[in-house]
């Protein structure tokens, strides 16, 4: 292990809570050998992270960023080229065939395309992992029925996957993944093939399962909406590296990298409307207006910013765009405001924003 | 047609059914594991053994490229070793089985390769052993394609069985050649053809019905 990697490993360890993490990556790298004319590909590059027990941990990245590999080293479907992957304290990399199979019974997985066995009924699909583990048929029926109740498919137990809708198939997938009472549930783009409404119901189910059983969930996705809905913590991955990591609210409130900013903008409406962006100038325009972005976050998210600006400071405020969301149960607002463009007015407005404990910045000026 | 000829026709039909049924059964017993191995021993697969896979692939191709009538004659010593004789209906089962085995192996291989790789990954993620994956995932999921493939094999074997008259195997094809052609009895020839058509049609329909029955991928209304 090189020096940089060990520093990252240490920082990841200290970042984790006092509780032993359910999953820990210590400087995990994965490279695929060069094939044909293609150069060697680095899918994971010294990734270190810690997932606390019971947490819903989201990993977001564009396709090819390495998130799929990140998920698959957790249950040993992929073997890292370097580093350690600890699941409940066991190093997955060192496990042999039998040890790996035992681990996989403690780590459930759901998939974008569900991967249900078409030749088996709903009941037999959910019973499948129990059958693999050698559970007697009589003993498994009660467990399977209980799981089908949990996911709301008790009436479909005799149906075949081809007779189900996408959302129902994913519910079967979730029941199947929970059959062996795993400590960890891996979600591989589980809602990416579903429509928005079904996505919400599946995410609700995952959150309910998490609350009910305390199962740790690691989910990968390319949709920030998914992270916003259920994740506690998020890691942004790009070209095999984690470029940003933290509690979901913090990443939403203060994205540092361009990638994180664009993911955040995709769901919070914090992108500047195109027609407005076109008009924006970096220099003040005589008699024009200044465009401010004001973020309402944390304890101050409900601060009466508009009335304080207009009544308190006597500044005319126009709302150009805006949205107030709830992320992890806490309000999160994002507004584009226009105020008269004179330097002293802009300075006064920004001072007031800061005084209220909010974040504000001047995006530019319009006529 | 005289009662004699009807007796001959019934007898020949019996011989054909006997040869085809036994060789299809033996061919499946041998071809099934071979096909499973061919489908799962490539690079990065469950039972990776690339060199063995290549060699077996070559043997399978070599057998399949040999014209059946040449195969029948070429393996006469082998037939004698197994059946004790190289002549007769039972002896003819040996070359028929030798021809059917690689055919079935390729059909099983193709059917298994059609199974979604996501299912293999999901099974591995659930802690399945490679043998469990074959027995509980690959074969059940490939069953509809296997049923259709075996139907195809049986129909082909009926065609092949016409040629084993060359080693005294009897059967419908032999009857057609000796009576219908060599003795100028067009009624016998016509009867043989009709029986073959009925046989093939019946088998094909039965095979398709079976494949439909085991195929749960199609939504039934």
Helix-strand category of chain A: alpha/beta
Count, helices of chain B? 9
What's the Cα radius of gyration of chain A?
Answer: 24 Å
Structural class of chain B: mainly alpha
| Helix percentage range of chain B | over 70%
Which outline of chain B best applies?
globular
pLDDT below 50 for ≥5 consecutive residues: which ranges of chain A?
A: 1-17
Largest sheet of chain A: 6 strands, mixed
CATH architecture assignment name of the largest domain in chain A: 3-Layer(aba) Sandwich
The CATH homologous superfamily name of the largest domain in chain A equals P-loop containing nucleotide triphosphate hydrolases
Largest beta sheet: strand ordering of chain A: 6-7-8-3-9-10
CATH level 1 class label of chain B: Mainly Alpha
Q: SSE order of chain A, as H and E?
A: HEEEHEEHEHHHEHEHEEHHHEHEEHE
pLDDT averaged residue by residue of chain B = 93
* Overall morphology of chain A: elongated
Residue fraction in strands of chain A: 25-35%
* Sequence stretches where pLDDT stays below 50 over 5 or more residues of chain B: none
Continuous helix count of chain A: 13
Termini gap of chain B = 49 Å
CATH class of the largest domain in chain A: Alpha Beta
List keywords for this structure.
heterodimer; A: 367 residues; alpha/beta; Rossmann fold; Alpha-Beta Plaits; 2 domains; six-stranded mixed sheet; four-stranded antiparallel sheet; 13 helices; 14 strands; disordered N terminus; B: 221 residues; mainly alpha; MetI-like fold; 9 helices; 0% strand; globular
């Amino acid at each position: 292990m090189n020096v940089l990697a060990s520093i990252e490993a240490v920082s990841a360890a200290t970042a984790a809570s006092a509780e032993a993490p359910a999953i820990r990556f210590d400087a995990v790298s994965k490279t695929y050998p060069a094939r044909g004319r293609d150069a060697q590909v680095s899918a994971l590059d010294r990734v270190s992270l810690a997932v606390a027990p019971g947490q819903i941990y989201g990993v977001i990245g564009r396709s090819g960023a390495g998130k799929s590999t990140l998920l698959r080293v957790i249950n040993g479907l992929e073997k890292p080229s370097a580093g350690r992957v600890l699941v409940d304290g066991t190093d997955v990399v060192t496990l042999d065939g039998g040890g790996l199979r035992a681990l996989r019974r403690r780590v459930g997985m759901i998939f974008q395309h569900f991967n249900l066995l078409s030749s088996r009924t709903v009941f037999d699909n959910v019973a499948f992992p129990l059958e693999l583990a050698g559970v007697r048929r009589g003993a498994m029926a009660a467990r399977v029925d209980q799981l089908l109740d949990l996911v709301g498919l008790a009436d479909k137990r005799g149906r075949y996957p081809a007779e189900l809708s996408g959302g129902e198939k994913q519910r079967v997938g979730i029941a199947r993944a929970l059959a062996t009472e795993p400590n960890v549930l891996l979600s591989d783009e589980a809602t990416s093939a579903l429509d928005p409404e079904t996505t919400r119901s599946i995410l609700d189910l995952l959150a309910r399962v998490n609350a009910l059983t305390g199962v740790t969930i690691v989910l990968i996705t390319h949709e920030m909406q998914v992270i916003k809905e259920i994740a506690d913590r998020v890691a942004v991955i790009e070209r095999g590296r984690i470029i940003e990591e933290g509690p979901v609210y913090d990443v939403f409130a203060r994205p540092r990298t361009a990638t994180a900013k664009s993911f955040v903008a995709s769901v919070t409406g914090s992108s500047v409307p195109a027609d407005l962006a076109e008009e924006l100038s970096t220099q003040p325009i005589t008699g024009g207006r200044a465009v401010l972005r004001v973020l309402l976050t944390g304890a101050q998210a409900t601060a009466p910013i508009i009335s304080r600006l207009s009544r308190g400071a006597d500044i005319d405020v126009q709302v150009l765009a805006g949205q107030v969301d709830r992320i992890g149960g806490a309000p999160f607002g994002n507004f584009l405001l226009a105020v008269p463009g004179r330097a002293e007015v802009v300075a006064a407005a920004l001072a007031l924003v800061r005084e209220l404990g909010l974040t504000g910045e001047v995006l530019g000026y319009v006529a | 047609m005289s009662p004699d000829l009807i007796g001959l026709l019934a007898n020949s039909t019996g011989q054909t059914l006997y040869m085809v049924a036994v060789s299809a059964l033996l061919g499946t017993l041998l071809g099934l594991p071979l096909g499973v191995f061919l489908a799962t021993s490539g690079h990065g697969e469950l039972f990776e053994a690339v060199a063995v896979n290549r060699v077996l692939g070559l043997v399978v191709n070599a057998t399949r490229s040999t014209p059946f009538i040449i195969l029948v004659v070429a393996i006469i010593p082998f037939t004698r070793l197994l059946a004790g004789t190289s002549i007769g209906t039972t002896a003819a089962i040996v070359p028929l089985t030798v021809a059917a085995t690689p055919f079935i192996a390729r059909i099983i291989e193709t059917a298994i390769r059609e199974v979604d790789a996501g299912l293999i990954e999901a099974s591995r993620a659930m802690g399945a052993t490679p043998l469990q994956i074959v027995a509980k995932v690959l074969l059940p999921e490939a069953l509809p394609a296997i049923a259709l493939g075996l139907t195809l094999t049986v129909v082909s074997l009926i065609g092949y069985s016409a040629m084993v008259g060359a080693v005294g195997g009897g059967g419908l094809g032999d009857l057609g050649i000796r009576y219908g052609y060599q003795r100028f009895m067009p009624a016998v020839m016509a009867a043989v053809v009709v029986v073959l058509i009925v046989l093939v049609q019946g088998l094909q329909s039965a095979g398709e019905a079976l494949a439909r029955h085991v195929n749960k991928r199609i939504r039934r209304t």
